């Protein structure tokens, strides 16, 4: 036990250090002001999107369209946010897609708007308004390990308030509700080891570790696929906007860098991000949607 402790501690430190993404774009420290209102978006987007322009709007859900909560089942989108998003989607001048870490049916149920494209499991699943689905292929030997991985996690690292979210093709090990923080580094490091031992990729996220199949796919590639399949090879000539709050959203921000505009939802002025701007809250995302409404109405 004594000989293994230093190695376990080192493993925890290495994993926790990986929670901060190594991203090379400037931090945009002038953004993320405490109070964001519609005039701020005139400054950020006024020269990019003119009244009457058609645009593609891509959004994350948890932490972007809805406040983060202690349990995903408790997360709710405000009626005002939903109505604004519905107005944009129904305007005829905006293409809307939500790309979430949740399973695709779960995020559609949470939002409840019919004429937008939903993507779940960080882009592994795509659900179109007409019911057509696109799923990235997962190797059979890896898929066969899915239930075994969940069982192992439940037996070994689920305690003190942590739990495993089963998203059908991926999982999230949550430790947001763990009250005694001393347990978290060991739990997170061990969860990472277990996930990887079954052939899945382990990625840090908000107070959690995500287990994804070893498919070379992410939200950025999903966004590119959705835009390319919905329009044509010249989709970059459209005005593309994206907002997200997590490290997994950085792939979309990186993908549209230079051609679209993106927002990272964070109050951390020191956070380095691929986004063009930082905005501090879900409420500021609502102001962004209201600004877009004024352009597509």
TrEMBL record:
Family from the record: Belongs to the trehalose phosphatase family.
Transmembrane residue ranges: none
GO process annotations (BP): trehalose biosynthetic process
GO molecular function: trehalose-phosphatase activity
Protein function: Removes the phosphate from trehalose 6-phosphate to produce free trehalose.
Annotated SUPFAM superfamilies: HAD-like
Pathway assigned in UniProt: Glycan biosynthesis; trehalose biosynthesis
Phylogenetic placement of the source organism: Eukaryota, Metazoa, Ecdysozoa, Arthropoda, Hexapoda
Known EC number: 3.1.3.12
Keywords: Hydrolase, Signal
Reactions accelerated catalytically: alpha,alpha-trehalose 6-phosphate + H2O = alpha,alpha-trehalose + phosphate
Residues of the signal peptide: 1-24
CDD domains on file: HAD_TPP
Keyword Signal: yes
Protein origin, superkingdom: Eukaryota
Cofactor entry: a divalent metal cation
InterPro entries, alphabetized: HAD-like_sf, HAD-SF_hydro_IIB, HAD_sf, OTSB-like, Trehalose_PPase
Name of the protein described by the UniProt record: Trehalose 6-phosphate phosphatase
Top EC category: hydrolase
């Amino acid at each position: 036990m004594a000989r293994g402790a230093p190695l376990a501690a080192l493993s925890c430190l290495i994993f926790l250090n990986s929670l901060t993404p190594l991203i090379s774009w400037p931090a945009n420290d002038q953004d993320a002001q405490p109070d964001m209102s519609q005039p701020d978006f005139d400054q950020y987007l006024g020269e990019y999107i003119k009244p009457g322009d058609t645009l593609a709007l891509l959004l994350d859900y948890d932490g972007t369209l809805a406040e983060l909560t202690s349990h995903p089942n408790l997360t709710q989108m405000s009626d005002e946010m939903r109505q604004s998003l519905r107005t944009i989607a129904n305007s005829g001048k905006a293409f809307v897609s939500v790309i979430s870490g949740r399973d695709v049916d779960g995020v559609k149920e949470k939002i409840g708007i019919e004429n937008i494209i939903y993507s779940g499991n960080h882009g592994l699943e795509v659900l179109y308004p007409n019911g057509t689905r696109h799923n990235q292929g997962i190797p059979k030997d890896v898929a066969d390990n899915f239930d075994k991985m969940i069982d192992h996690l439940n037996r070994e690292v689920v305690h003190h308030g942590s739990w495993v979210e089963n998203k059908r093709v991926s999982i999230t090990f949550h430790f947001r509700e763990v009250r005694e923080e001393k347990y978290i580094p060991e739990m997170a490091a061990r969860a990472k080891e277990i996930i990887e031992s079954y052939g899945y990729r382990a990625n840090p996220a908000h107070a959690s570790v995500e287990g994804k199949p070893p498919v070379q796919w992410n939200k950025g590639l999903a966004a590119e696929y959705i835009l390319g399949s919905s329009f044509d090879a010249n989709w970059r000539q459209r005005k593309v906007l994206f907002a997200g709050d997590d490290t997994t959203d950085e792939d979309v921000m990186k993908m549209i860098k230079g051609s679209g505009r993106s927002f990272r939802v964070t109050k951390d002025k020191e956070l380095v991000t691929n986004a063009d701007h930082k905005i501090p809250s879900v409420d500021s995302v609502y102001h962004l949607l209201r600004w877009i409404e004024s352009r597509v109405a």
